[in-house]
Structure formats: structure tokens, C-alpha cells
């Protein structure tokens, strides 16, 4: 409720403070305004689907990169460090362009804009996921490993049944953060032409020439998406806590 | 029949030598209590027996298997040797029953129903079957330690190692854990117990091992060492413990 009030007052300030606004472009009471709004909102599909697909992949890749980082063997740890340092150093926009325009030339595989976007986002995020997982797993007490060893659990079962379930609970807030980043970063995929929220807004700006109003709506679209994600993560955290006691 | 044989075992942590040339034989069904001041190497000694620590020199043979880094041998040893920890080390995200069933299901390949039945048997034996569906944090320390004992028993080991099992407990809970351990001892389990509970040692132990500075200073039948300790260090240690 409080949030809605803040939003309403922000909107009021935006509309009330100047006569340069032209809200008619996104006025839902007119046909063209309503159509424009629908056009903009239709981008949400790709923004959401792409972000979710990318986060799923990056969580898996991140975990697979994190585990060698915890090894006793130097070689495995080197692999982890090298991956994290290199991937983390590439700006995400550059990675998107490289995957879309560079990778086909290199490998002969042509990805459509959606999968190019997913791949670039997932790759970029996986380095951060790897660090999050590594920290989470390292935070689990030594005694848990010893107890697992003392009942003969092998490495896989120790991770699967003992360590990861505890680590994931601890890193859940950080994973939620990454999903928020992912939703925001997905806007960059508009540069290769994916019809997500930002691209739709850009196209509308070109035809209507009302950037102020249209980009304001775009900001609100992301805000709503991200508030929903935050609420979802908080709900999940509460539920996990509840099942603990 | 000797089930554990340690020959001239040494263990280093960096420059610090935690075990100095330790030799010890334990017979099947024997109850051995290990005591000594902190830092004397008693925990390290039993942690070497199930290879939570790897020794650097000497030889350890458990139930006919020489301890090396080979994974097959390790599995065999850990199937034979159970361990109870000072801090219980229960899995906090699993219920009591799930804590007990994990090993039997994943390692011994028991079906869900069989694992559950076995777990309930052992919970019965440590006298807390009514806590099966609770999470560890909902139990008292004494109850948690009894669950940890039951978890070890579920793997049906031939040897149980106890690493200061009552040191993290409030005084009123020590008795309930010692009772369970006494009952276990009377059932013929081979036990090596690191503890300062001298009453328990007197009642239950066949032999006492006194360690100091990484060495076994004194070893002998428990009634002998208590009444007539041979070494000055052990005599002093007993006096300190009994007088406090």
C-alpha cells in the first residue's frame, strides 16, 4: 500500500511539474494510447523468459565452476580462478555483441537473438554465481563434511544431501540479487534486436517521438518486475526459515 | 582378536608433531578410554583411525585393512568405523529420521522403508523415538548427541569412536549420553572414547590410555591405572580431574 502511494505521488510530480509532458501517447483511455501501452508491455515476455532461462543456466554453470574452486588440487583451483577472472572482466554489452556477431564467425554456429542473449547473460552472470556458491559452500562448518565422511557418504552425495541444501539457504538472498541484475542487464540485449521491453520502448520512441513519457513507462515496467522478484525471494526465504523450525 | 593396530604412528600439523611414534592395539569388543590434557593428541589419535586425519609415518590396520589414500579402502574403513563428535555434527536441515536414514539409504542401499525401520530401532535404543520428526535444533544437547550416536549405529559399524562426546553438554545432560554409551558397551561394541569422565572410564573401560604431548604416557587395565598410576604425569592429571 505504501509502495503504491509513493508511486502515485511520483507520477503526480512527473505530470504536475511541467507542461512539456504529453501523456496522450500512453493514455489508456484512448485507442492509440492503449495500443501503445500494450505494445510496450508485450516486451515483458522476452525480458522475463530470457532472464529466467539465463539465470537457470548461470546457476548451474556457476555451481560447476565453484566446485573445482574448493578442491585441494591446485590445477582445479586455477581453472576456477581463470574462468572467474576472465568472464568477470568482459563488459556485458561487449559479450552480447561478441556472442551474436563474433561467435558465428568463429564456430559456424549461428544463434538467434534470443539464444545469443541468453548465452551472453548466462556466461557473464555465471562468474558471479560461482563466487557466490564458493562463499556459500565455504561457510558450511568443517564438521558437516566430517559427519558425512564418517557415515561413508561419497563426494557427490555429501554435496547433494548435506552441503548444498545448507549452502543454498544461505546464499538465497544473493541469488535473488543476481536475478534482479539479470532482469536489468537483459535490457542490453535490445542492441541486437530482441523484442524485449527496452527494444519495444525504443521502437515506440522512433514512431511517436515522446521519449520522456515512453521511457518513464519503461522505468516503471522494470520497477514492477523487480519488486515482484524481490517479494518472491523474500517469500521463499521466509518459507525456508519456517521449514527449519 | 586385534581389530585396530597402530604401529609407530606419527602425525604432523606443519611443524607441530601431534602424534609421536604412537603404538596401540585394540581387541574386538574392547572398551578403551583415552584421556589427557588438551592438545595431547587424543582427538588426533582417534581421528586417524577413521582417517579424518591422514598419518604421515607408521602403519594403521583396521579390521585387516591398512589405511592408505585408496578410495576403496577408505570406504571399507568408514563402513567399519563409526564416529561421534563433540559438536554432534547433525545435519541441521534434515529431521532426526532423515539424519539417520541418509547413510543407510545412500551408502548401504537400503529401501526407504527398511532404512526407516532401522532408524526407528536405533532411536528406540537411544530412547528418543518420539523425536523422529523434529529438527536437530529443536532438541536438547543431550538428545542431539543421542541422535548422533544412533546415526552412527544405523551404519552398523564394528567400532565406534567417541571424540569428547559430553564436553559440549550441560552437566544435567551428560548422564543420559553416558547411559546410552554404557548400554552400548555392555552389548559388546568395540569402543574408543576420548573423555574426561573418569567415573564412566572406571565403570566401563577395559583399558585406559593416558596421552600427553602426542605420546602415550601410560596404558593399562583401568582398575590398575586408577589405583596405582605408574607415571607422575598421569597421577597428577587424575588428581586434578578428580579434585575439581
Structural class of chain A: mainly alpha
Poorly predicted residue ranges of chain A:
none
Give the quaternary arrangement of the chains: heterodimer
**Approximate helicity band of chain A:** over 70%
How would the global form of chain B be characterised? Answer: globular
SS field, number of helical segments of chain B: 9
Spatial extent as radius of gyration of chain A: 22 Å
Strand-and-helix sequence of chain A, N→C? HHHHHHHHHH
Number of strands of chain A: 0
* Overall form of chain A: flat
Major sheet attributes of chain A: none
Average pLDDT of chain B: 91
Describe the structure.
The complex is a heterodimer of chains A (245) and B (244). Chain A is 80% helix and 0% strand. Chain A has helices at 2-16, 31-41, 44-69, 74-89, 92-107, 113-138, 142-150, 155-185, 197-208, 211-244. Chain A starts with a helix and ends with a helix. The relative contact order of chain A is 0.14. Chain B contains nine helices and ten strands. In chain B, the strands form two sheets. A six-stranded mixed β-sheet of chain B has the order 6-7-8-3-9-10, sandwiched between helices. In chain B, strands 2-1-4-5 form a four-stranded antiparallel β-sheet, covered by helices on one side. Chain B starts with a strand and ends with a helix. Classes of the chains: A mainly alpha (245), B alpha/beta (244).
Note the topology:
The complex is a heterodimer of chains A (245) and B (244).
Chain A: H1 2-16, H2 31-41, H3 44-69, H4 74-89, H5 92-107, H6 113-138, H7 142-150, H8 155-185, H9 197-208, H10 211-244
Helix pairs in contact in A: 2-9, 3-4, 3-6, 3-8, 4-6, 5-6, 6-8, 8-10, 9-10
Chain B: E1 2-13, E2 16-27, E3 31-35, H1 42-49, E4 57-62, E5 65-66, H2 71-80, E6 81-84, H3 96-106, H4 112-125, H5 141-153, E7 159-163, H6 171-186, E8 190-194, H7 198-204, E9 207-212, E10 215-221, H8 222-227, H9 232-243
Parallel strand pairs in B: 3-8, 3-9, 6-7, 7-8
Antiparallel strand pairs in B: 1-2, 1-4, 4-5, 9-10
Helix pairs in contact in B: 3-4, 3-5, 4-5, 5-6
Amino acid at each position: 500500500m505504501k509502495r503504491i502511494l509513493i508511486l502515485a505521488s511520483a507520477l503526480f510530480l512527473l505530470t504536475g511539474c511541467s507542461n512539456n509532458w504529453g501523456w496522450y501517447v500512453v493514455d489508456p483511455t484512448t485507442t492509440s494510447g492503449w495500443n501503445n501501452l500494450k505494445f510496450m508491455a508485450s516486451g515483458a515476455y522476452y525480458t522475463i523468459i530470457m532472464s529466467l532461462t539465463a539465470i537457470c543456466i548461470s546457476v548451474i554453470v556457476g555451481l560447476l565452476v565453484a566446485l573445482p574452486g574448493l578442491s585441494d588440487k591446485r590445477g582445479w583451483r586455477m581453472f576456477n580462478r581463470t574462468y572467474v577472472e576472465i568472464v568477470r572482466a568482459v563488459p556485458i554489452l561487449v559479450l552480447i555483441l561478441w556472442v551474436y556477431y563474433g561467435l558465428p564467425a568463429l564456430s559456424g554456429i549461428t544463434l538467434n537473438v534470443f539464444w545469443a542473449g541468453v548465452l551472453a547473460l548466462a556466461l557473464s552472470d555465471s562468474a558471479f554465481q560461482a563466487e557466490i556458491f564458493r562463499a556459500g559452500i565455504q561457510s558450511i562448518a568443517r564438521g558437516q563434511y566430517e559427519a558425512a565422511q564418517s557415515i561413508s557418504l561419497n563426494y557427490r552425495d555429501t554435496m547433494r544431501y548435506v552441503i548444498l541444501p545448507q549452502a543454498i539457504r544461505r546464499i538465497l538472498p544473493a541469488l535473488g540479487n543476481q536475478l534482479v541484475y539479470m532482469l536489468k542487464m537483459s535490457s542490453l540485449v535490445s542492441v541486437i534486436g530482441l523484442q524485449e521491453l527496452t527494444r519495444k520502448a525504443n521502437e515506440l520512441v522512433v514512431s511517436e517521438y515522446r521519449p520522456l513519457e515512453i521511457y518513464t513507462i519503461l522505468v516503471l515496467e522494470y520497477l514492477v518486475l523487480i519488486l515482484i522478484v524481490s517479494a518472491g525471494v523474500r517469500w521463499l526465504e521466509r518459507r525456508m526459515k519456517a521449514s527449519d523450525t | 582378536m586385534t581389530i585396530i593396530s597402530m604401529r609407530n604412528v606419527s602425525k604432523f600439523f606443519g611443524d607441530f608433531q601431534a602424534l609421536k611414534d604412537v603404538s596401540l592395539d585394540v581387541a574386538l569388543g574392547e572398551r578403551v578410554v583415552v584421556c589427557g590434557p588438551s592438545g595431547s593428541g587424543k582427538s588426533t589419535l582417534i581421528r586417524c583411525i577413521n582417517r579424518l586425519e591422514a598419518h604421515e609415518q607408521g602403519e594403521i590396520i583396521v579390521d585387516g585393512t591398512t589405511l592408505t589414500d585408496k578410495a576403496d579402502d577408505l570406504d571399507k574403513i568408514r563402513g567399519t568405523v563409526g564416529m561421534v563428535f563433540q559438536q554432534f555434527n547433525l545435519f541441521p536441515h534434515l529431521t532426526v529420521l532423515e539424519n539417520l536414514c541418509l547413510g543407510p539409504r545412500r551408502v548401504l542401499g537400503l529401501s526407504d522403508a527398511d532404512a526407516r525401520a532401522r532408524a526407528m530401532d536405533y532411536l528406540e535404543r537411544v530412547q528418543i523415538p518420539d523425536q523422529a520428526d523434529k529438527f536437530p535444533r529443536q532438541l536438547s544437547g543431550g538428545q542431539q548427541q543421542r541422535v548422533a550416536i544412533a546415526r552412527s549405529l544405523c551404519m552398523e559399524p564394528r567400532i565406534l569412536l567417541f571424540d569428547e562426546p559430553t564436553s559440549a553438554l550441560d552437566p544435567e545432560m551428560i548422564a543420559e549420553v553416558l547411559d546410552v554409551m554404557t548400554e552400548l558397551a555392555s552389548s559388546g561394541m568395540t569402543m574408543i572414547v576420548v573423555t574426561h569422565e573418569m567415573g564412566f572410564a572406571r565403570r566401563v573401560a577395559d583399558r585406559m590410555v593416558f596421552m600427553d604431548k602426542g605420546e602415550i604416557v601410560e596404558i593399562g587395565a583401568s582398575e590398575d591405572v586408577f589405583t596405582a598410576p605408574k607415571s607422575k604425569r598421569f597421577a597428577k592429571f587424575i588428581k586434578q580431574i578428580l579434585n575439581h
